[in-house]
TrEMBL record:
PANTHER family: CAPSULE ASSOCIATED PROTEIN, KDEL LYS-ASP-GLU-LEU CONTAINING - RELATED. The keyword Iron does not apply. The keyword Transmembrane applies. This is Glycosyltransferase family 90 protein. Residues 43-61 have a biased composition (Polar residues). Residues 305-611 form the Glycosyl transferase CAP10 domain. One of its GO terms (molecular function) is transferase activity. It comes from the Eukaryota. The chain crosses the membrane at residues 12-30. Residues 43-64 are annotated as: Disordered. Keywords: Membrane, Transferase, Transmembrane, Transmembrane helix.
Length: 623
């Protein structure tokens, strides 16, 4: 068991006020030099509270990750304590957080959730409001008509969901899967139409200033309607079905770079809005060997910040999404397009990804969730294609999956360690005085970083997806830096303790499988998903910076450095892995996706109704 936050404090209380001060100070100090005693041993972090700690608590004993984990446990407890267990409390929590009455059908939603033993915390649904609120600034009729006209569409009529697309379903199973997802709740829905994004990439970036105008309209419309004026039924789509709307063209931009299209969605004073546009990707990648900004001594402390391109302009040259996506088809026009993932600056409405609804073992990992922790290899495994965008001779060194594989390739690190003038084309190592890595301390027994990495790392691409000829799995332009390995089913990857998860062309569809496994996901991403508000970083998964500069620190914290006698935190890793699995089985089930979709679509249906400002649900007789 992890030390709980409350018990951590009581242990400090035992040790007196001086210790508290030291710990608090320690939070802000950067480590100046390596000190083995700074690393809490596994037994210390896991020690029962009743026993007096063998060593005194001083700042150096607190690894920054310990502190982040303690805080995550506290955040998680706060979140879970908000659970609502009956309709009345759920409606109250809704109104307190959203400032209006819940949509019509809220009682059915609650019963559906309760029937499926779903844990209900209002915060779990924040994403829905981030996605939908701007649409209060757009007339309901326009939303209905645009959705109705869109070529890829799921319609609900008389409690029956039907998909439509002009792409053969064998090529793109997404519409069929989403149709099935919507069907799981269709009997509780009014008639509605959903425009569906069938591409991997997200596609709407409305300028921040425009969204801000819509959000002002949303806040002006927000009110609690007197119950006797409340309309508790949805209207019908009869008129729309009898008189199909005029064709709506969102005006797709397909030419140009994506970064300039994307940054208009960032706040005016954000670093990305102010950054220069990069066009030449033959330069060395914009990487720093110091700690990532606003990290806690190098480790991700604010996951929203760490995964936000608006706050990290260097990502325009470090992520395939911006360097060169496979396809761009982007519009500035806000219209109700549903999709499975998006960047923070995109304006799509998120559904749980279709990949998470399929039983295809390629995404889900199948029925196997891995053996008990103790039977796993004390190693990290990564297998995947070098996707992320169109990598070519002049830009491959900027792609995230390439970078990750190189950074934990012992041979490529050894070249840096042994050849003073050598520069790796696609990564840098952390500075010597950061992360206190045992392997990098002069005189610490010279095994070096590369030899240590070799003890735990097994990462390789299964296909390098070269351009212009994608047929052979390898390319002339980066052949010296990569070899390819055989693909490995997820179930076999679960024989390893550590599972990094890195974005491909968009989010990584394996993530839900990883969370539900007995192994530990280590996640870096710039993408948003439906489940973000129900997962707590450092509690259910380990967050990683998009530069991956923290990967060595993370791995040393968990696996230690056996050659140098440094113990890791194996039991902490196991706890996060198993806490994540238990939590996934509670809040990421297909039933939970249905509960999310039902809430989302009731809310969306209200937005599509001309009477939306006076629509809502209220307990009879309650004002
Ligand atoms: C909830 O379960 C009851 C009993 O099985 C069933 O009659 C009812 O239709 C269900 N309601 C919803 C909204 O799922
Ligand atoms: C639902 O739609 C499908 C496909 O159009 C159709 O075959 C089926 O009969 C419909 N079911 C109901 C209950 O309307
Ligand atoms: C985390 O970062 C986001 C994005 O920059 C910011 O809005 C939020 O206030 C930060 N949270 C904390 C607790 O600092
Ligand atoms: C970092 O440490 C290594 C190993 O001790 C040493 O060879 C190298 O010169 C150091 N680099 C810097 C910039 O201090
Ligand atoms: C690791 O790096 C070396 C040298 O850069 C390269 O030859 C090898 O193929 C790489 N291994 C993998 C798995 O990519």
């Amino acid at each position: 068991m992890l030390l709980s936050a409350a018990s951590f404090h009581s242990r400090l209380a035992q040790l007196g006020i001086a210790a508290v001060c030291l710990v608090v100070v320690g939070w802000f100090l950067l480590p100046a030099s390596f000190d083995f005693s700074k690393h809490l041993s596994t037994s210390q972090l896991g020690s029962p509270l009743s026993t007096t700690p063998k060593t005194t608590v001083s700042p150096k004993q607190n690894h920054p990750a310990d502190q982040l984990i303690l805080r995550a446990n506290e955040d998680f407890r706060t979140l879970v304590n908000k659970e609502t267990r009956n309709l009345h409390d759920a409606a109250k929590a809704y109104q307190a957080r959203r400032g209006r009455q819940p949509p019509p059908g809220f009682d059915k939603w609650f019963t559906f959730a309760a029937n499926h033993s779903a844990l209900i915390v209002e915060d779990f649904f924040d994403r829905i409001y981030d996605d939908l609120n701007p649409f209060w600034g757009i007339p309901a009729k326009q939303i209905r008509e645009q959705a109705n006209d869109f070529v890829h569409r799921i319609s609900v009529r008389n409690g029956n969901a039907t998909g439509r697309t002009d792409i053969p379903r064998e090529d793109r199973p997404w519409i069929g899967l989403w149709e099935d997802m919507v069907q799981s709740v269709a009997e509780y829905l009014p008639d509605l139409d959903l425009a569906i994004n069938v591409m991997d990439e997200s596609r709407i970036v409305t300028p921040w200033e425009k969204i801000n105008e819509y959000m002002i309209k949303e806040s002006e419309s927000r009110k609690v309607v007197p119950v006797d004026e409340l309309k508790m039924e949805f209207g019908s789509l009869k008129e729309l079905d009898e008189h199909p709307p005029e064709h709506f063209d969102p005006g797709w931009d397909t030419i140009g770079a994506y970064w300039p299209m994307a940054v208009v969605g960032c706040a005016p004073n954000s670093p990305a809005r102010e950054a220069e546009i990069e066009t030449d990707y033959t330069n060395p990648p914009p990487l720093s060997s110091g700690y990532p900004p606003r990290s806690h001594e190098g480790y991700v402390s604010n996951w929203t910040f760490a995964s936000s391109p608006c706050d990290h302009p260097n990502l325009q040259g470090l992520h395939g999404t911006f360097v060169e996506p496979i396809s761009i088809s982007n519009t500035k026009t806000l219209f109700p397009l549903f999709g499975g993932s998006k960047l923070p600056m995109n304006n799509e409405i998120l559904l749980p990804p279709a990949m998470y609804w399929t039983d295809d073992p390629f995404y889900s990992g199948g029925d196997s969730h891995g053996d008990p922790w103790e039977q796993k290899k004390d190693q990290l495994i990564w297998r995947g294609s070098a996707s992320g965008g169109r990598n070519k001779a002049e830009n491959w060194a900027r792609f995230q999956r390439h970078r990750f594989v190189s950074m934990i390739n012992a041979t490529s690190i050894k070249q840096l360690e042994t050849r003073p003038d050598y520069r790796a084309p696609n990564f840098v190592l952390p500075e010597n005085d950061t992360y206190d890595l045992a392997a990098r301390v002069p005189g610490a027994g010279q095994t070096g970083l590369s030899d240590w990495v070799a003890t735990w790392s097994d990462a390789a691409a299964v296909h390098l997806l070269c351009f212009p000829d994608p047929d052979p799995p390898r390319c002339p332009y980066n052949d010296a830096y990569f070899s390819v390995a055989k693909a490995m089913p997820m179930s076999e990857q679960y024989a390893y303790k550590y599972l990094p998860d890195i974005d491909g062309n968009s989010f990584s569809g394996r993530y839900r499988g990883f969370l539900g496994s007995t192994s530990l996901p280590i996640k870096a991403t710039i993408y948003k998903e439906w489940h973000d508000d129900r997962l707590v970083p450092w509690k259910h998964f380990v967050p990683m910076d998009n530069t991956f500069i923290d990967v060595y620190g993370i791995m040393e914290y968990f696996v230690g450095n056996k050659e140098l006698g440094l113990e890791g935190h194996d039991d902490v890793a196991r706890n996060i892995a198993l806490d994540g699995k238990t939590w996934a089985e509670k809040v990421l089930r297909k039933e939970d996706m249905s509960v999310y979709v039902l809430r989302l679509l009731l809310e969306y249906a209200r937005l599509c109704d001309d009477d939306r400002e006076k629509m809502g649900w209220a307990e009879s007789g309650v004002g």
